Amino acid sequence: MSIHTHTHIYKLASKLHVQSGYTVIFFKYLICKNTIYTFIVPFLISMLILCQPHLLLVSVEIFLQALEDGLKRADADPSVKAVMICGENGKFSAGADIKGFSSPKRRGIALGPIVSLIERSEKPVVAAIEGVALGGGLEVALGCHYRIAHVKARMGLPEVTIGLLPGAEGTQRLPRLVGVPAALDMITTGKVLCLVIPPKGVKICSLPDVDALFCNSIFLPPGQPLGPRRLSLKPVPKLPNMEAFLSEALVKVKKQAHGCLAPELCFQAVKAATEQPFADGVRREQELFNVLLTSGQAQALQYAFFAERAVQKWTTPSGASWKSASPQPIHKAAVIGLGTMGRGIVTSLVKAKIPVVALEQDLEYLNMGRKAVMFLLEREAMKMEQGAQTLDFHNPARLQFTVDFDVLRDVDLVIEAVFENMALKKEIFHKLSRICKPGAFLCTNTSALNINEIASATSRPQQVIGTHFFSPAHVMKLLEIIYGHHTSPTTIATAMQLAKVLKKVGVVVGNCFGFAGNRMMFPYAQQAVFLLEEGSRPEAVDQVIEDFGFRIGPFRMSDLAGLDVGWRSRKGQGLTGPSLPPGTPARQRHGHRYSPLPDLLCENGRFGQKTGKGWYQYEKAGGRTAKPDPWLHSFLSQYRDTHRIKTRFIDQEEILERCLFSLINEGFDILAEGIASGPEHLDVIYINGYGWPKHRGGPMFYASTVGLSRILAKLQKYSEAHPDVPGLQPSAFLKKLVAMGNPPLKEWMSYLSRPNNKL
Ligand SMILES: C/C=C(\C)C(=O)SCCNC(=O)CCNC(=O)[C@H](O)C(C)(C)COP(=O)(O)OP(=O)(O)OC[C@H]1O[C@@H](n2cnc3c(N)ncnc32)[C@H](O)[C@@H]1OP(=O)(O)O
């Protein structure tokens, strides 16, 4: 804490832009006291996290105490005319140290009273915001009498995303500043606002103007009372239809929450601001905050926050890692195949402003693909409003369509996205290897196929890598990145960098059939179908899974993705279709239980939404509203009769456990084999690619909360009842962890001997 000179203020001020008025955002114009005065509380640490490359974490106690002492000194010192709170190194504050929430010691620390102290100050306090002002950081700014922000500053109350609410009186001050609709939107979604394109009414000053603000007391005439600047004293702006507005908002919040508590409790806290005086609202905020803090969901969401960052620091069993590998720049990319996946990938690249060549096998497919890509891009551009023109996708230098492989000579990276056929993929990779420049990286968008085999068709296997996108590829955040035997660390680093540029979460995994995500999905989907054989219905299974918090249950998902996709893959594996050896029992493959139900549906032309019929019926082909289908129910009965399957009532617990525990069980095998380097990887994959509810932390985190012993016991019980289902037989690694006394998730990997790549 120190008092800074006028010169210092100038230095800071020269980096700031001033906005006046409020339109979308809540910043009022800066008013600052006259010339020589200001006192800077050094970066709001600790709270205060200086973002990368290092963290500057100072204990909350030290920070809060320093802030309190500083404010008191400033109040007592007649030479100080105003106080400016700012951050160091271009960052205001990223809010509280999230790691600290799990510490019981931390729970007693309250930022709210300090924010009140700031607000009560007799001298004008200005928050000078650069970089980020998030969570507690923004709440501090709300306690100030004025806020001034750099035009590129990012501001928000993201507590809801870590399972909390803005518990330092933010739920009470923000609605008083910006009104209930804007406050509710920010607080219940956690969205972070950026003023790169300033809203109407926001004034951007030139640098001399900014200096003038500080030098001349143009905004704050001496002696102007601070009362009207204290948010806690202001009423919440009224709405003519507040009650109706709030009921509608609650419905929306609940619908989007999928069982996550925080958004609804955030809503309740803001509602309290509309109904109660400030002090009572603050008490309500505290009550709700404590509910969330101890809910378990906050821990899961905070785990997910760190897991997403941990997976960026990838390593492979051979010792390659993010530390030593440098990504290569991608100035131009190509996408081969403009089916559903290829279209989404092209769109993603264009959005990331990477020039793209899109290639199809012939003009007919090319034109269909072009139309579809243009449609997607138009839609994306509309969403982007002012930023749309920067996509410039009608410019052939940005996006070129071709059927000519020669055009790929100068690209830095190719993503092949043709359908899942090994022979076809190998043919394409062989061609690419001959045509592309030596440094070009060759990526395959496959959901299961062997990366080594694909790489073997090239003369540069070190530059071949799997990039498994999720549909729709321009929307889904996950990019599963699969290295083969020969993939170089530079290639992995480049794929990870690509994920970042595409605003996706890249997760590096090893090579095996289905990689990590789909491999875990197989036993889950298999259990879902077995449950139908034994007496359940698609809508019952989906309901249980959706009640758990998944966006969509396995049957609705299968209808959406198309049943034909899996059918083609099973035919390729010889599990069904013409290559199935005659005499193979209908419900058995390789000595294990198999359900032909999905194959039978396909044989009946039921491919899901695209044909208007699948596990459900739809209003028309391409329809999206799933309705239980009496045809399917009677088909299931006949099927059970034909195969003499005794049906029984299956309760929700069994549905949930068999689906989820078999998926988790596979996860333990994947960890044991070194396909994923930690449970966080599987959790990040499931949250970002498979709709696993984030407030349950991902499947492996969930397993740790259920208790490994319980999961093991249940798997043992189910595998005894179904000895021909390998997916239910407990993983040796799970058994080992239970035998070791159920260690915490972060220690699991230390119980493994050195992992190796499976293929
Ligand atoms: C009550 C509740 C109160 C009072 C709160 O304030 S709750 C906290 C509210 N704040 C947040 O939720 C902000 C979370 N952080 C972010 O959104 C982003 O990290 C960022 C926008 C601040 C920076 O993004 P970026 O530049 O991409 O960098 P990273 O996300 O990779 O972060 C860099 C490292 O900093 C660690 N970090 C970031 N914020 C926090 C935090 N609030 N507490 C603890 N640690 C934080 C992050 O984990 C990265 O660490 P490493 O991976 O490098 O170890």
UniProtKB/TrEMBL annotation:
CDD domains the UniProt entry points to: crotonase-like (cd06558)
Organism of derivation: Strix occidentalis caurina (northern spotted owl)
Gene Ontology cellular component list: peroxisome
Pfam families listed in its UniProt record: 3HCDH, 3HCDH_N, ECH_1
Quaternary structure note: Monomer.
Keywords attached to this entry: Fatty acid metabolism, Isomerase, Lipid metabolism, Lyase, Membrane, Multifunctional enzyme, NAD, Oxidoreductase, Peroxisome, Transmembrane, Transmembrane helix
Pathway linked to the protein: Lipid metabolism; fatty acid beta-oxidation
PROSITE patterns referenced in this protein's UniProt entry, alphabetically: ENOYL_COA_HYDRATASE (PS00166)
Entry keyword annotation includes Iron: no
Ranges where the 3-hydroxyacyl-CoA dehydrogenase C-terminal domain occurs: 514-618, 655-744
Residue ranges crossing the lipid bilayer per the database entry: 36-57
Entry's Gene Ontology BP terms: fatty acid beta-oxidation
EC number(s) reported in the record: 1.1.1.35, 4.2.1.17, 5.3.3.8
Keyword flag Lyase: yes
Compartmental location: Peroxisome
Protein name: Peroxisomal bifunctional enzyme
